[in-house]
Amino acid sequence: MDVPCVQVEREDGEATRQALADEDLVNQEHKIVHDDGWLYIPVTDPAAVPVSHEVVDHAVPERKTQTMPDDLVDFVASYERLGEVVLIDEDDDARARALADAIVESDIPMKSVLNRASKIQGETRIRDWDVLAGADTEAVHREYGCAFALDLAAVYFSPRLATERHRVVEQVQSEERIFDMFAGVGPFVIPCAKQGAEVVGTDINATAINYLHENAERNSVAERVTATHDDVRVIATDYEGWADRLVMNLPHSADEFLDTAKRLASEECMLHYYDIQHEDAPFEPGIQRIREIMEPEYAVDIETKHVVRSYAPHEDNVVLDVRLLRD
């Protein structure tokens, strides 16, 4: 039977499915199908699908009944997937154990179940995990046609930022010079390089940089990627005035690195500045700090003010897209 579906190229399928699932838009009563090089993802509400996705009517079969975690516990099962690693966030040990057992018994493809055991901590931005099933904290995550190998016990990675990363990458032009100041395993670096840009990524986490090298090879962009393990304030000496685009995804302390961003920026540079602030004034502190550092050497044009997600009660994770033009 014909039902509304998002039509995407097959290589973008998993990232698109995850993004739709995050908004509770995937129609679980029908199967996802491949047809003539396209993937068709049934959706519950075509009007709610972002305009960047094409919605068409397509024949997809009804899904046979699958056992899901919700069928096996007496509470709402909340989890997210990173490849075949399933992540949960339960403070109660008994509830965590029950949910992990339900995930294992369900029809969800999985190799490990991990429960968050700490907040993000330290300058390498990693967290502790309790391994409740399986033994592997390494995953291969796919989003928007890119594959990222990573070890959750050793690096920072958030699949919830996939849509935001894609928003930035869509702005990238071939031959741009891009510097990711806190690159991690490469979720900005790799897709920017796939757009034809020359990209430098640095991080103080040596394991993350090792994965960045691996992911550049995995995605066939190694010739356009330079990955360096060091403090960006040290590396900046070699790239003064180089960057056409800067990514500053270190929201708790990016303001401390704006002097370095100024050194890296070319005559005209787009800055993507991430911040976490109180919901009453989420943008103003970042704008004020950027102007303090960049002016008068640069004219500062705030092109975009965007709430990426709610971070904590009354706190928002936000981004400022800022065009810098040297006066």
UniProtKB/TrEMBL annotation:
Keywords: Cytoplasm, Methyltransferase, S-adenosyl-L-methionine, Transferase, tRNA processing
Key word Cytoplasm present: yes
Record domain SAM-dependent methyltransferase TRM5/TYW2-type: where: 79-326
Annotated source species: Halovenus rubra
Top-level taxon in the UniProt lineage: Archaea
InterPro entries: MeTrfase_TRM5/TYW2, SAM-dependent_MTases_sf, TRM5-TYW2-like_MTfase, TRM5/TYW2-like_N, Trm5a/b_N
Protein name, as recorded: Class I SAM-dependent methyltransferase
SUPFAM superfamilies membership: S-adenosyl-L-methionine-dependent methyltransferases
